[in-house]
């Protein structure tokens, strides 16, 4: 399943896809940005594979971010559920260094909000470091607001 997000698309990963990315093996004809997958992306995919084997794999959603113009894989994005007692899930994304957060980030976050809504969530949450002004701006532009701080970490949320 692919979801359009501006100039990118979010391509839902199957377990086989996630395992292939963990082995750092692009599919035939698939091209990856130089720094894809990142170490953080690999951690998300390891956790995703564990969750896919759980009793409720539908509560977890991980995707590759692909440029629509040329198919280049430039990052990943995901939703982690199930919704908690307040109906919240965690969203997040990561882009390769050669791709602009400020150009694509808001479209990605808005697409993740729709995925979360489809999973039954009523709120999305995430966090960023306080010195990551670009990422904070992206989340603010998608309607999230600061809910609290813990040291250098800023927590953001939005009702959906």
Structural features, described:
The chain is of the alpha+beta class and 160 residues long. The protein has helices spanning 15-22, 39-52, 101-118, 133-141, and strands spanning 2-5, 8-12, 60-67, 73-80, 88-95, 123-129, 145-150, 153-159. The longest helix has 18 residues, at 101-118.
Quick overview of this protein structure:
The chain is an alpha+beta fold and 160 residues long. The protein has one domain: Gcn5-related N-acetyltransferase (GNAT) (Aminopeptidase). The chain has four helices and eight strands.
List its traits.
globular; 160 residues; Aminopeptidase; alpha+beta; 8 strands
CATH class: Alpha Beta
Strands of the widest sheet, in order across it, are: 1-2-3-4-5-6-8-7
Structural class of the secondary structure composition?
Answer: alpha+beta
CATH architecture: 3-Layer(aba) Sandwich
Shape: globular
N to C succession of SSEs:
EEHHEEEHEHEE
How is the secondary structure organized here?
Blueprint: E1 2-5, E2 8-12, H1 15-22, H2 39-52, E3 60-67, E4 73-80, E5 88-95, H3 101-118, E6 123-129, H4 133-141, E7 145-150, E8 153-159
Parallel strand pairs: 5-6
Antiparallel strand pairs: 1-2, 2-3, 3-4, 4-5, 6-8, 7-8
Helix pairs in contact: 1-2, 3-4
